[in-house]
Fold this protein.
Amino acid sequence: MAAHSTKASSAKAAAAVAASAPAPAPAPVAPPKPTGRPAPEIRRVADLLKQVSDPTRLQVLMLLNDKERNVSELCNDLGTQSQPAVSHHLALLRHGRLIEPRRSGKHNFYGLTDAGRELAQVVNSIVG
């Protein structure tokens, strides 16, 4: 019987040690996948921001937020930009779908698209 009680005592002691020992660390868990906008939307926003990463293009966007303008008016408003340079900036903004032309006689007047207006509002909220 002494052997039985020694085995029981050893089992109780082992159980007590196991209970007081720290629990093993949980297995590493992968970080949760980001929630929010899908990747194509994120790429689209990044592309929009690239379009206005140039100070002149951003200034053109903000000028067109006030009213439609043609290239000559934009050249005058920008001051130091040549007509070919302004036309180049307008082409990039047009390809980015931030502006659209409207033909009137000999001139193209440029105005903001919905996306251009939204971006201009964001910029206005930042710069005040």
Remarks:
- The mean pLDDT is 83.
